[in-house]
Amino acid sequence: MKFGYFDDANREYVITTPRTPYPWINYLGTQGFFSLISNTAGGYSFYKDARLRRITRYRYNNVPIDMGGRYFYINDNGIIWNPGWSPVKTELDEYECRHGMGYTKITGKKNGIKAQVTFFVPQDFDGEVQQVVLTNEGSFENTFSLFSFAEWCLWDAQDDSNNFQRNFSTGRVEVDGSVLYHKTEYRDRRNHFAFYSVNDTIDGYDTDRDSFIGLYNGFNNPEAVLADKATNSFADGWAPIASHFKKITLKPGESKTLVFVLGYVEMPVDQKFEADGKTINKVKAKAMIEKYDTPEKFEAGMKELKAYWDKLLGIFTVTTPDDKVDRMVNIWNQYQCMVTFNLSRSASYFESGIGRGMGFRDSNQDVLGFVHQIPDRAKERIIDIASTQFPDGGCYHQYSPLTKKGNADIGGDFSDDPLWLILSVSAYIKETGDWSILDVMTPYDNDMSVAQPMLEHLKVSFYRIVNNLGPHGLPLAMRADWNDCINLSCFSDTPGESFQTYTNPKFAAEGGYSKIAESVMVAALFTYAGPNYVEILKHLGKDDEAAKAQEEIDKMKKNIMESAWDGDWFFREYDANGEKMGSKECEEGQIFIEPQGFAIMSDVGKDQGTDLKTLAAIDERLNTKFGLVLNNPAYTKYYIQYGEISTYPGGYKENAGIFTHNNAWIICAAAYAGQGDQAFKYYSEIAPAFTEETSDIHKTEPYVYGQMIGGKDAGADIGQTGKNFGQGKNSWLTGTAAWNMVAISQYILGVQPDFDGLKVDPSIPHDGDGFTATRKFRGATYNITIKNPNHVCKGVASMEVDGAKVDGCIIPYTEGKTEYNVVVTLG
Ligand code: BGC
Ligand code: NOJ
Fold first, then answer.
1. Exactly one of 208, 416, 484, 761 is catalytic; which is it?
2. Of all protein residues, whose CA lies closest to atom 5 belonging to ligand 2?
3. Whose CA is nearest to atom 4 of ligand 1?
4. Could you tell me the pTM of the whole model?
5. Which candidate, 202, 351, 357, 371, has a CA 20 to 30 Å from the CA of 801?
6. Residues 676-709: pLDDT tens digits?
């Protein structure tokens, strides 16, 4: 069942009922100011850091769901409704929500009054702009009321949700005409405030929540709206809000347009106040308000936003035989890559924005799907990430986007982290040809006095692995590798111990983690990422160092084959007892997905046919119609030596859920191994546009990836096998976005930036006749046509560039040339 449709021409998903199976959200803003907005206008805004600078309040896991948002209430002579249906939930005569690139347009109609509200965050602007167009489509003149509503968060979202004994007495506001200011703590330690304005006179306002809503009422029936009159309340402590009240009279056919701005302002310390020392200096706020105080200015901002996305999405476009693929590649997957790049795993409808900042591994991987869009921002991000590394190659696992400092609460020692930096830096160079990033002086632990060139950071990343091997010459698993839920040094038997940070005292003397437990996944990732480091060294003429590094890679491959090949696939770990995990010998969890793809793509044991054997085993044991499960069979009991993974009922999350992020590695590997049919099958099992038809089962947005989908074992524990099989969770902020962008664009469609230029080497379903692609790359436009007359999956039979035959599949790069016409014939 569908709950809307794709409007590809406008790059929108159009939701046609407010009762989606879960709130379907969008993100506004790409720079400093961000908003999350659901299809019923729920959500919140923040500046840079969803924890430290939360602007409006949201209630996670609330009953009913999705409470808190920017709401417009209409009281039409006693009939009260919202254009987005919620929170009043009066049945509307018409409803539509269009989530587009950086904007959301919600339209509701009731009894002849149509209200269309468009929300967006303009470029270079720290605020959300909202345009409300009210039209009388009825046949009588009508006078009705409009109330706006936003609830302020007291800045630190974590403190805001627990320190009530203090917070109920700190709230402060200021009112100036139609502008409602939030200035809690501004007098004291903060140099920022927020405001909510409208470009017209108002007939009243409220700034105190209890006065507006009423202590025993809810968002669905605020007292002021019921009474059809604002109370002009002035918050002093308790919960400050901002609500404008305006009476509107419309003749039949007449419209009224209002533009609201919800803004955030930072002030220099010596200019915070007016001469009286307590009134907010509003110069900056007024300039922001003026920037969007007419419908024309609003339109101009929207046009700019569209131009921005036209440009970004014009960098890579494809026309394939499948419009679902085109819609993913040309629009939604790239859009999601921007969002994950900006927000890492911090703020979604499943990430509360208070727990996690930017993840070291997460953000490095996000770069892989984003770097072609704005390489300069990718570069800046890479430097920020690398700045949280330590001289020994270890790193903080997370850092705050506001302070850019590592998060000491979580610490480091996640074994995979450093390797992703090699991949992100390589991706940046491959995209841009800008080798100078290697020279950028980059601090350790944010301390510039110990800065080293980025190349050195790659070196310490590489040798972090080499210098931390276990008994079989495989990398130590440390706290965890990519799979945060395999915690081999925890042995936790006490509630409340964090699987990610708790270390069992038995490993204290060993430095915090087992020196026995080894990760095959990190071994395989090392052999996949490592060759990039080698190539970089060679390019720099450092042949000796390159040879030395290559030796380590070869040794690792040998060690994997000697100690981690299980006969039909690679196993997952040696645990702290030296026992195999993810092997046929295990009772449960015999095969895991994570090491396989990287091992295949690094040709580990390829001469022994490991690639096709492994792919066959994956197809047999892990594949389902909704994607590949992470492991099989699911764990049905708690294994203290494995940790969190065995705490999830089978079929969910890392315990045999369909963890879409690592599905991409198999898609890449199948494509790499020439299995284009298999690669595309796995791709289409999880690509959101393909799940649209089953949205009732999938539940989360059909335009973006989620972190996981319920696996085939879901419900088995309770005798309801298959319950929630196919159900998506944790949408939006997942490494799946970047990796599936890589999988479809570079591995399946085969348009792959390489150190020496653009490579074209597709691996597609054999029945396709080919496709075309346009790629902007290093200052030139590449028009690429792929022909598949013999219906093969993979293999470049010939390549022509501007009519001339070329050997191999890398398009020779000619300095200064701006257009390349490329024809590739498979065969
Ligand atoms: C989740 C993981 C996540 C980890 C760190 C675990 O509870 O299952 O997916 O990576 O926490 O936040
Ligand atoms: C989600 C985390 O963001 C990511 O870092 C981790 O790799 C996966 N979960 C797998 O556990």
1. 484
2. 362
3. 484
4. 0.97
5. 371
6. 999 999 999 999 999 999 999 999 999 999 999 9
